[in-house]
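Changelog excerpt

This revision adds worked examples to the README so contributors can see how folded entries look when concatenated. The first example is reproduced verbatim below.
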Amino acid sequence: MEISRSGSGAHLWLFFANATPARDVRRLGAALISATCARTRQLALKSYDRLFPNQDTMPKGGFGNLIALPLQKEPRDLGRSVFVDANLQQLPDQWAFLENIEPIPQSRIETALTKLVGDRHPLDIAYADVPEENADAPWVRSAKPDVKLNGIMPKVSTPT
């Protein structure tokens, strides 16, 4: 994790072993944000806005997303734009940390997605409507029974 240049946020960097489709990376990023939101309720929905890459495919002739690289001198001199440990303390040797990162193989993305969100969509988040029985533990999801609609359903529905 890297403390942002402003010092008021943080960025999670993922490094992959091989070129990985942006769609897969975005699904993993969305799943990480959703799982964190469901567990701690401390991330805002705007966290999804800052997910890079921003789109599943690169525009023809485009460069994709420009990302401000970490370890820039001025912010770094202020203790920002640096990688930190689990206690948010600056790592003593930034370059050694980067050198020792074990890249994620593409084959682990699906496993990670299953572990994070199970069979739900990566954007399946629960923010509001915490049932009273879960008031002391809002991260616990209530079981939602399947609802079967009875009767004849129209083939077409026209909103008005």
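The second example, added in the same revision:
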Amino acid sequence: WYFTVQYTVQADDADPLENTVTATGYYEDTPVTDTDDHELDIKHNPVLLVTKTGPNFASIGDTITYTITVQHDPASDGFNIYNVTVSDVFGITPIYVDGDDGDGILELGEVWTYTVEYTIQASDPDPLVNTAIATGEDEDGDEVQDEDDEEVLIEHNPIIEVNKQADVTSAKVGDTIFYTIVVQHASGSDGSDISNVTVSDVFGITPIYVGGDDGDGLLEAGEVWTYTVEYIVQAGDANPLTNIAIVTGEDKDGDEVTDEDEETIPIEEEVCPRLCVDKTGPAYAYVGDTITYTFYVYNTGDVPLSDVTVTDSVTGVATYQSGDDNGNGLLDVNEVWVFTDTWVVQEIPDPLRNTAIATGYYEDVPVTDDDDHCLDVVKRIVLPAEQPGICLDKVGPACAYVGDTITYTFKVYNVGNVPLSSVTVVDSLTGEATYKSGDTNNDGMLDVDEVWVFTSSWVVGDSPDPLRNNAIATGFFGDVAYTAEDDHCVDVYRVVDENTEDVVDNAADVGGPDDDAGASTNDPQDATTRTETGSGGSFPWVLLIVGMIGAAVTLAAMAIYRRRSS
């Protein structure tokens, strides 16, 4: 007879599995038995299952936590697994959390839990793949193992920074400014590589790369890339001059990263500090006379001048009289300061020549101009009857602009002892002058001690420069003509249009300091940009007196000569 029996091997069955069978029969109610046993070697096939989980996304610098679980796989036969260890490919030892019942054996139904922490590095690949490996032994001493990967997508957030710096704190038109541009990772950047870095300049100048890259074309953490840009300041540039550098690149995700930096430089305005002095005084004087010199100081530039003084080679330091309209102690643009000084005329030298120097300062830089004067010294003598004499004093502005209408004033003196008739003044430039006043008794005669005034005007041209012209006064005693002459020099300034740089007409009326109409009505500083040529002017004065003294013919000559030159 054959019998069969089935048994499912259990995970907790002993190995080998011993099974005993007993056969029983009866003979007339007497049992007859026999036994037999069987030993079965159990083959153990436990299967490990390790599972690793983590976040889907992380940024560089983030610390992420992986969770690792170890248990029997559903396909496991459930036999115990011994000496279980868990490792991480990053070399970090997982930390056991819980799951074991305390016997150190991974039994069916148990789930052991571990954790691992990892900080994302800038050099990590994207995605970041991390593997957990679990290893153990079955009851046969055979190794059982499993592993699991976890993939984390890295979000890259590099921050690029550009700094632009000039080599100067200010500049003038025509100066070359050297800019240095530095590109690097900014503070707070995650340090991940930046590719396709380009640097541009708002002035349209391509920056020149100097150095800083290790040769791979990637802006890495710690690298400092340097560029340079040169720019020449133009006349039309804004003031202050602002220049912007822009840097652009891509992070590992293909997103654009950019930054910009500006450098602002003030442009120094071009200035033209300048002054002009006009010295006036009598054409002649007698020995013992006290004469007064008047000095007119003009600001012909475009900035105020400080510490303005006038020093004369004969009289010394002149005395300020007027002109500082606002009382600030500065010779401002459009102001005319007046100084005076006196001198007692001596017999020698004759003629008396002296030079005045006006000095002012712009930011400790001296600005000067000079003008001189010549005085004829006349000795007092007793003139015989019917001694004719004439003297001419011509005055006008010291300086004028192209296009100005200037007025010359001619003063004719009778320095003899008889009236003169048919008195005229003819100028070498303007022609015959116009009589204005002086014939106090209206007899048509230049009487003794009368002073006749004539005027004439002229539009200043571009040349000659300086403008020199001579005037001759003529009077008659009987049929004999007596003459005197004097000349004058005007410095010619040019007004230049800032935009076109062309010389333009000023078209203003300008008179001399002795003009009855007043001083200059158009100051040289009205122009924005000036070009000045010429030195000073000159005023020659000639007076000739011839007399007959005594019973015989005595010739007395008086020459009065005055010259101004600068």
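Reviewer comment on example two: Confidence is low (pLDDT under 50) at residues 514-566. The two ends are 156 Å apart (CA to CA).
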